[in-house]
Design brief:
The chain is α/β, with parallel strands linked by helices. 42% of the residues lie in helices and 22% in strands. It contains 6 helices and 5 strands; from the N terminus they run αβαβαααβββα. The N and C termini lie close together (12 Å).
């Protein structure tokens, strides 16, 4: 993450995140690096569908594709970028180690990640299956995956 923060600073670019299953883990990794305040604009942890929608994800997308979909992650990444006027937005949604009584669909332990580049109006989309024993271990795997992909994009 340190290389990413340094590169964002050098390029005078900013980033924001809208996270669900990672619970702010990505923004935590960002803020652990000196200089993060120069590039990080905002972060939202939107565990509920209600707040994904309040942050700009179209309710029709969630209804059609489910909250556990790349389409929802794309809505998250683009809307957080637009809301904060950030160069990059990251959206993350998925299920980790437990069923969701409010959303009885989607694959367990599958996570959808979208990184939005506002300048290019381009999405970089990924999904990852995680199978560690604990939520903490799965979140760490997802965060490392995102750091690796983000490094190749910026």
């Amino acid at each position: 993450m340190e290389k990413i923060i340094k590169k964002l600073i050098k390029l005078n670019k900013t980033i924001s995140t809208m996270e669900s299953c990672t619970g702010g883990g990505v923004v935590n990794a960002i803020t652990n690096i000196p200089g993060a305040s120069e590039v990080l604009k905002f972060s939202a942890v939107t565990y509920s569908n209600e707040f994904k929608i309040k942050m700009g994800v179209d309710k029709k997308i969630i209804e059609k594709y489910t909250v556990y979909s790349i389409e929802t992650a794309m809505g998250m990444s683009k809307n957080i970028s637009l809301f904060t006027n950030s160069d990059y937005g990251i959206g993350i949604t998925g299920k980790l180690n437990r069923p969701d009584k409010n959303n009885n669909f989607g694959l367990d332990n599958k996570v959808y990640i979208s990184i939005y580049d506002k300048e290019l109006n381009k999405f970089y989309n990924f999904d990852i299956n995680v199978n560690k024993k604990t939520r903490k271990e799965n979140k760490e795997e997802i965060i490392n995956f995102i750091i690796d992909r983000l490094g190749g994009i910026i």
